[in-house]
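S.,

Sequence below, as promised.
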Amino acid sequence: MKSRLRGVVVIAGVGNVLRGDDGAGPRLVEMLEKRLERATEDALCVRVINCGQAPENHIGSTRKMRPDTIIVVDSASLGLPAGDTRILEVDDLGEHSFSTHRMSPAIFMNRLKNETGANVFMLAVQPATTVLGKGLSAPVNRVLKELVALIEGAIGQR
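The prediction came back faster than expected:
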């Protein structure tokens, strides 16, 4: 992932924290927010935004950040074991929706790409459950901790 991060990086967490693992994106952003406060001047410029379950409402504020790279973090039913992750390109998504959100991820990501000119991709996390009222599952919680460490390593001293 480190080779894909250029310039101003925006990490957009998408999901509903009230629906189990669907809250993976917002939870990752929350975890990163605390750690990014300690970033040094030499670190890559990274901004995080919690888009919740209506990411389309954050396109304008994301555009104002003038990003070069945008990582959309969302849970996605890909038929993988719970907690597995994949990097998905905008062109790989098609127009179908595999998430619980109103706007399909492909439409959202294409709008971000068109309005910012940034390199946009998704970091998809396979959920174990998206049942209302459930918390994060153990596999997804574990992978979020691993992703925080991976992202910290990728954005560290340059």
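The longest strand covers residues 46-52.

Coffee later?
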